[in-house]
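Exercise 7. Predict the joint structure of the components listed below.
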Amino acid sequence: MQLTRRNMLMLSTASVAATAMGTFPAFASLTDDEIAEITGGADLGEGAITLTAPEIAENGNTVPIEVSAPGAVAITLFADGNPVPNVVTFNFGPLSASRSASTRIRLATTQNVVAIAQMEDGSFQKASANVKVTIGGCGG
Amino acid sequence: MISRRDFLQVGMAASAMVGASGFGNWARLAAQQSLTQDQLLEFEMFGNISLIHITDVHAQLKPIYFREPSFNLGVGSNKGAVPHVTGADFRRLYGIADGSPSHYALSSGDFAALAQGYGRVGGLDRVATVVKAIRADRPDAILLDGGDTWHGSYTCYHTQGQDMVNVMNALKPDAMTFHWEFTLGSDRVAELVESLPFAALGQNIFDAEWDEPTDLFPPYKMFERGGTKIAVIGQAFPYMPIANPRWMFPEYAFGIRDENMQAMVDEVRAEGAECVVVLSHNGFDVDKKMATVVSGIDVILSGHTHDALPEPVLSGDTIIVPSGSNGKFVSRVDLDIRDGRMMGYRHKLIPIFSDVIAPDADMTALIDAQRAPYVSELAEVIGQTESTLYRRGNFNGTWDDLICDALLSEREAEIALSPGVRWGPSMIPGQDITREDIWNVTSMSYGEAYRTEMTGEFLKIVLEDVADNIFNPDPYYQQGGDMVRTGGLGYSIDVSKPQGERISNMTLLGSGEAIDPSRSYVVAGWASVNEGTEGPQIWDVVENHIRTLGTVTVQPNNSVEVTGA
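Solution:
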């Protein structure tokens, strides 16, 4: 079966493990702490993971985010300016045809979206994107 | 008595905006002492493909005055780079003689005096003459419309864009992309787009619900000219749902989407395109960056930020051609495409001097037919101006000063806000202000003039937010407008600082007191992107104000202090 993006979204939803961990205030350091918890402090590589996010959110309440890391067993998304930065973890089994997922997340304000992928060999990859949430203005 | 045409032929210096061979030829051309239609159109045919670009017409069917900005700051890597060079600096950079036609067409300084001599610019009947002349030279030239065409006038508003569609169809474009068109509402846009006899392109126009391409707006179109395949990829304005009311076109999502742009370039190359042209409404700095991120684009025809440059700018391996606004310019770009690649180009930015280029009679008749039902409303004189009225510039223009004054007095507000749009023709001292003139700088589908209360803290957030849309050092975060205009409110801005730290010294001009973050102020404005905004239409507010004044005189505005540039 050919996996379309729409199928992929449905599959991904099934394997989503959304986490909501307490009510700490949101600080970038909180994201760093949670990343360290996942990686055990291991080095974070770059280049084998692709995070696609808009530069400026059209609607901060539903921002499309796409992440892809061939060879990943899990990808976790963080929004470092949200009250709860840890957004979602996508888990991929050995039969997952594509190690990528799309979702939409709410962003409280302009902030970084960070993706951490755990690879099959136990190493970690990181990608981040700054997404601006603006009150809107007027273009030419 | 000397006629304007005589004046142009004997007077001043130079003609011609022949760009291709570098800065040097400008001064030489300045030695010529005449300006004729033949000169403006003179072009030694080159290569095997011709592109014709017009963009950001903003529904200006008739000739108008248009003053180029005297304030256009670049930030980050674009500091001091064109198009962020104005006035005498711009003329020096390109070797343009003071007082020459190029001075008047391309730069600021002595605007009112030069306008008296050189007259109005634009007019789609003059544009038709130019397009016909290029087609006489190269019958299969590709005509591309960069968008912001179906917006900006009394007749465009009342016909919901039909006047512009009728006139542009007669020019026979080959493709178009979009921005303000979407503020007609998605149903009307769909209706008009389905009627078009040419391609409506946008690789970045997506279905908002599924984030996938739409059927109505294909990403590109392939053209074959003399055995050579040329792909034209459309790039609509990326930030429509942010800069304009999202609720008017909720079915669509946009964004820069440069990864999809790369995929489209790769796709058309795989299909045999030997030349890739992007018809863009990104704005100049965004185009410049995109050309370094996406590989394989030969030409970007650049719109949105209303810049006009006498020669293309090279970014990576891509030439970027910005073609001005309001029907003031047409670009001709001849390309030599051989062995699957662009071997060379020749370019000319043709200024549409309306007293030099003869109108095309058929087009004049068609334009007048669109205007006929509205002629008496359009022509009604509301007042006179003793000042030059203009909008373009990063911080304020006299038109917006007048509009802010109208909001303050007609809406009994302490502070007025006017959007930093870049459209709207200029007027020169001594002119009658007609209803058409007022609509030319205010017409839109969400023109309600609201009256509300804002705290000092929120006002600062608004100024900081808009400032970051202009002065963020990364062009991909810029939306291509100018700073929101303020009435009754002064401030200082350091454009080199990050968001949240640019604005200081906010002052209520009425009392001279510092703005209190916790106090509420009565604020009037227009063009809110929020649904359900209530108030009289801005053109009625301005008309009442001008009628009361009779004669308009706009005092110099020193309420914004700029540093860090």
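Discussion. The longest strand of chain A covers residues 111-119.
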